[in-house]
Amino acid sequence: MTEPSPAELPVRRLTLDDLPACLDLAEDRGWQREEHKWRLLLSVGQGYGIDAPDRPGGLLAAFVLTPYGARPDGSAEYTCVSMVLVAERRARQGLGRRMMRHAIAESGSAVPFLTATPSGRPLYEELGFRDVGSLVLLSGTFTGEHPPPSGTSVRAATATDLPTVLALDAVAFGTDRTELLTRLPSFASRFVVAENSAGDLTGFAAAWPNPTVTVVGPVVADDLATARALTADLCTRTEGPVRFDVDTRHEELHDWLRAHGLDGDYRCSLMIRSADDLPGDIGRRFAPYSVALG
User: Are 219 and 184 in contact (CB under 8 A)?
Assistant: First the structure.
């Protein structure tokens, strides 16, 4: 029996019960089985998928849409599109385009944005997304230490820090990420804050486990020196390699990371549709929560 055309296959909402199928689909395209990250994405965002007619319980395509902020009518201000995947055997048949059109439609009045791989970028440009920046994915074993600037200390975050963390993030990211950030204590392997001599919080950062590396992010700080101190604390307390997705606009941080053992040249594009730029203050936003979350 001939499989239905891509246009005939319905798109449905995914749940956490679909996690194994998402991992299988990712592995089919050569991605790692990032269960820890997928579980977070399917909890804070909404997954969408197309079932595989020839493989019960399997998926032919998927993506996740994560909403941020809220307008007076309850609609989201922004949506982050991520994990756009199509099974290898059905690649180049229009499923990717169909899934992205569905993501745009589901975004409604919200502004969609994403982090694009080089292979995905042409499709996103065709659908109206445009570049507003880029990230370099650096990884390796962090070497050396970097003491906090004078008058600043780095310590483990506590529950009482959360309101200030949310306030700092709202300025840096430009919209509300309360649901995502309140999951940091359970999602991250280490979650830290920077504090000045007056006891004011000047930044926060976290590191979380992936299959082969520990990812550093988010990193939000008032200045570069504080961002370095937060990063050094996380990296020196982590066994094995770390990964840091650094925005190319932070040249000094990029050079400092390379000088301390991290390397890499893989680049992704930050893209947005129906708006001029991403919200927030790039001067305080030193690392994304994840490339799948912004």
Answer: no
- The CA distance from 267 to 118, in Å, is 8
* Cα–Cα distance for residue pair 108/165, rounded to 1 Å: 29
- Residues 263, 47: Cα–Cα separation, whole Å: 32
* pTM of the model as a whole: 0.94
Q: Which residue do the tokens 């000088």 mark?
A: 259
Distance (Å, rounded) from C-alpha 261 to C-alpha 138? 9
Taking the C-alpha atoms of residue 40 and residue 198, their distance in angstroms, rounded to an integer, is 35
Our CA dihedral for 29, 248, 179, 130, rounded to 10 degrees, sits at -70
User: For all residues of the chain together, what is the average pLDDT?
Assistant: 95
Contacts of 160 (CB under 8 A, 6+ apart): none
Question: What digits encode the pLDDT tens for the residues 70-94?
Answer: 999 989 999 999 999 999 988 888 8
Angle (CA) 44 286 117, round 5°: 65
CA 211 to chain centre: 16
